[in-house]
Amino acid sequence: MTDTAQPVPRHLARYARQIQFPGIGLDGQEKLHAARVLIVGCGALGSVIAETLTRAGIGRLRLADRDFVELNNLQRQVLYDEHDVARRLPKAVAAAEKLKAINSAVHFETEVIDVNWRNIERLVEGVDVILDGTDNFETRFLINDISLRHSIPWIYGGCLGATGQTLTIVPPHTPCLRCLYPEPPPAGAGETCDTAGITASIILTIAAVQSLEAIKILAERHDAVSPYLQVFDLWENRCRQIGLQNLAPFENCPCHQGEHPWADGRRAAQDAVLCGRNAVQLRFPNATAVSLDELESKWRPLGNVIRNPFLVRLETDGHQITVFADGRAIVEGTQDPAQAKTLYARFVGN
């Protein structure tokens, strides 16, 4: 029996069609309204997930992303538009602006940061589910560690070309990402979105599955949660569900034994070549806050400067250097971390 025949409270009236679905019902909708979710990454997957959960009535969404909106994002990152590109808005901020107009009853928290081992404990405080909207395995292994440490479910998703996969991880009851992939794939071992491209359709598909898996968990419909690694190839018209029962007993996985090297900072990298872009992110272990006003003044004679409350950007000599208030930087025009550091030292300082 479901509770769909009960009168819908006024504060939930906009979700009437969702409440009619027996899998959710009024009781499930109330649970969604009380839930708090962390979305790590507000790019392709993350923007679709954020919009879907906003429309579904999740009570609180914490949006964390390190990047700003660019023109080539618009092909697949559905929340953003050309106005956001022109303003060079951080994705978390631009997403929250759009989402507030969709559902003002949802409370949004924006974090314009690079999610790493130093800040993830704060980010997961009080959350019920973590959703993966990232583009790199280092951050996914970090999420996996913190999920196991605090028994917070998370939903992995990844896309390339017209294929994608997703896995729901509910510690301590299911295998984790490290059970499936004991180590991140080595750099250069496979295709990237730079070399293989990416289609919007697979993004929408994987994000839709991730979102509904989160809704199942938050509504406490645990029997409906997928136990499979789900793989979709939209170009070849194939879908697979891969059972993980043949993995080694997942209780023996180092993560389930309390070994969390990414969350402890022992496996953390400081620099990252950004997927789908000719760019490198630089972050510094002992960075202090940067005065964006001073940097803007320093850069004005050197080239075109764009400034907003979150970042300052210099375009010069075929490169673009974006510095955030926390000292983190994105250097575009190179995929060589050494060259990126040289440019940073030249235009920002040591």
Distance between the termini: 65 Å
Question: For the record, what CATH class of the largest domain applies?
Answer: Alpha Beta
By helix and strand content, what is the structural category? alpha/beta
Which H/E pattern describes the elements? HHEHEHHEHEHEEHHHEEEEHEEEEH
- What is the topology, as strand order, of the major beta sheet? 3-2-1-4-5-6-7-8
What is the total number of structural domains?
Answer: 2
Biggest sheet, open or closed, and with what strands and sense? 8 strands, mixed
Quote the CATH topology of the largest domain. Answer: Rossmann fold
Per DSSP, what share of the residues sits in E-state strands of 2 or more residues?
A: 15-25%
Identify the CATH architecture of the largest domain. Answer: 3-Layer(aba) Sandwich
- What is the CA-based Rg, rounded? 21 Å
Mean pLDDT across the residues is: 89
Provide a count of the helices: 12
CATH superfamily of the largest domain: NAD(P)-binding Rossmann-like Domain
- The residue fraction in helices comes out at 25-40%
Low confidence ranges: none
